[in-house]
User: What shape does this take?
Amino acid sequence: MATQAVNRSSDSLAIRDTEVTVVKSDAEKPSKNIIPASYNLGLGDEDPTEEELHGPTALRRVSAPIPWSVYTVAFVELCERFSYYGTQVLYSNFVNHSLPLPAPYGPAGSHHNTGAGGSTSQGVSGALGKGPETANGINTFNTFWCYCVPLLGAYVADEYWGRYKTICWSIGFAILGHVILVISAIPPVITNTNACFGVFMLGVIVMGFGTGGFKPNISALVVEQIPAVNLKVRTLPSGERVVVDPTITQSRIYHYFYLFINIGALVGQIGMAYAEKYVGFWLSFLLPTLMFMTTPFVMWWGRHRYRQSPPQGSVTSKAVKAFMYVMRERWSWNPFVFWKRTHDGTLWESVKPSNIEPRFRPKWMTFDDAWVDEVRRGFAACAVFCWYPLYWLAYGQLTNNFTSQASTMTLHGVPNDVVNNLDPFALIIFIPICDALLYPGLRKMGIQFTAIKKITAGFWLAALAMVWAAVIQYYIYKTSPCGTDANNCYTEDGSVNPSPLNVWAQTGCYVLVAFSEIFASITSLEYAYSKAPRNMRSLVQAISLFTNAISAAIAEALNPLAKDPLLIWNYGVFAVLAFVGGCGFIWQFWQLDMEEDALNNLPEGHVEANEKMAQFEAAEIGPVRGTPTLCTTCHISAIFRLRPMIASEMQMPGNGCIGCLCFTPQPNPPAYSNPNQALRVRIKLPRRRSRLWLFQLQPSAQRSKASHLSPAPENAHTAKVSRMSQRKPRGPTFDVTTPPARIPLAAP
Assistant: This one.
C-alpha cells in the first residue's frame, strides 16, 4: 500500500502500512501515537526494484532517523539493568562465601555483621557460605526463572494489558523484590543464616517475576517508537538515491539499546562490588533499588508520548491453531517423510483463507492471507531461536564460573566480581565501532552481513572464549598452592590463598564474549522484533528470551562439572557445544538467509481476535468483506471502525481511492444526504448497523436528527437500496465520484 501523510494546519491523517496515526497540530497536546514529521514518507518515495536491491546497480541502504522517545525508553532499560546486574553480581559471593570472621580474627577492614570483605587484596565478601556449587545453582535458577516469566508477561501484554501497562506493573514487582533483598542483608538478618537464606530466595523470586514481565515488552516498545515501513527508495538532498531499510533502523536502535543496557550493567556491577567489599551487602542491594525507583517517573512522563500498540486479544491461540491446521495431514513417524511433507513449499498455503471456500473455513479463521505469511515468518524466527540454548550455555559462564575462577587468581586489590565488568566495558567500546565503521564499511563493499551470518559468528566467538577459559583453568590448577582444589584454598585468617596467575589473564575471555554478544545477542532482539507479526511481538521476544531458561535448565544438569577438579572439562564441554551449535545453525538456515529481504518486505496482515465480531462483520459485509469494491485503506477503515474525522479524510489517489471510501465512479451518480447513506448503498449495510459503526460521517447536528429505523429484512434489502438511492436529499449532498468537501465534524 502506498505510504504517505496528508499535512493540514489542523488535525491530519498519516497512514503507514495499514497503521493509522492521528497527528495533532503544534498547538495541541500530542497524542500518544505521535510520530516525528521526519518519518512521513514523501510522495516521491518508491518501492525498490530488484536491481536497486541486489546486483552491481544496487543502491546504498541507510537508516531512518531515531526519535527522542527511543532514548527515554532505553534509559528505563538502563536503570533496570543497573538494578538487575548490580544485584545479580553479588549473588555468587553472597551464597558462596561465609561471613568474615569477627574482629580481630578476620581480614583487616572486614565486617562480620554486614559481610564486607575489607580492603585487603584477598578479602572476599560473603554471607551464607554454601560453596561454589550452590552459588552456581542459585545463579542458574535465577536465570531460568527470569527467562521463564517473560512468556507470561508477553501473553498478558499482547492479549490483555498492552506493553505499557505490563511494563508499569512489572516495575512495581521488581521494586518489591529489591526491597526484600535489602531486608535480607541488614545486620539482624544476615547473621542468621537460615533466615537470611529464606528472605534472600524470596527476594530473588519476586524480583525475577518483575524482571520477566519487563524484559520482552521493553524490547518491543523501544523499536515500536519508529513506524513499521517496508523498503523504500528516497532521494537525499544531495541527489543520491538510497534505500531506506527498516531492518538497518531496527539494528541501530537495538545496538544503542544494548549500549544503554551495558552502561547500566557496568556502573551497577562495579559500584555494587565495591560497596559490597568496603561497606556490606545492605548498601550494595539498596543503591540499585533507589536507581530503579526513578523508572516510574519516566514511564509516567511518556504515558501520552510513547507510541503504543493496544492489546489484540487471543491472536496467540489463532497462530497455534493455524499451525496445527497446516500440520494436520503432514505428521509422520518417519523423519524423512515428515521433513519432505513440511518442506514441499506449500505448508502455509493450506491455511490461507483465499485457498479455502468460505463454507469450509473454521470459525477461528478470522485473518487474511498476509497475516498467515507473517505467522510463517514468526515461526521461522522461533526455529532460529531453537539453537540459542547452546550459545547461552557458554555465555552463562560469564556470571557464574568466571567469577569463581577470578577469586582463585591474584587480584591485586580488585574485587573478584568486578573483573567480569570487562564484558560490558568492551561492549560500550565496540558497539559504536560496529555501528559506525564495521557494518557501514561492509555495506559499502557490497557485503550483506545478515542476521544469520552474525548469529553464526557469535556462536563461534563464544566457543573461542570457552577455549580461552579452559586454558586459564589448566594453569590455575598447575600453579595453585592447593593444586586442583583451588576453590577451597584459604590462609589461616580465612582469606583466599590464590594462584599467582594474574586475574587480568581473563581479559581475552570477556572481549571474545562481548563480540559474540554483538553478533548473536543483539541480533536475536532485532530478529525477534522484525520477524514477528505486529500483534505477537512481545510473545516472540519472550520466546527468544525463553531460550535462556532452557539453557539454564541444561546448565543445571551440567552443574556437577562446576567444581574442582572438573572445571577444565566444564569449559571444554561448553566450547564444543557452542561450536557445534554454530555449524548446525548456518547449515539449517542458509536458505532462510537468502530470503532475508523478501521476509522483511512482507505486507502487514490483519486478524480479528474476537470471533463473534468477525462473524458479525461477515454477516454485514459478506464473505469477501468488501474487498472487490474497497481499496486497502478504506477496507481497513471499515474493519477497524475509525472515527469520523479519520474516515472523512481518507484520500489515497496513488492507491486507486478517489474519495471517501473509494466509491466507484458512476455515469449518473445519485446524490446522498450524507456519506453514511452513500456507504450503506455502496456496501449494502442495513441502516441501523451502519449508524452504530464509528465511521459515520455526518455532522453531529445531522446525527441528532437521525431516526432509528429497524433493519430491513433480507428479502426486502434490494428494494430498500433502490428506494434510498432515489430518495430526495436533505441538506448538503455528497457526490460519490469526487472526494467530499471538508465539513465541520464533531470531536471524536
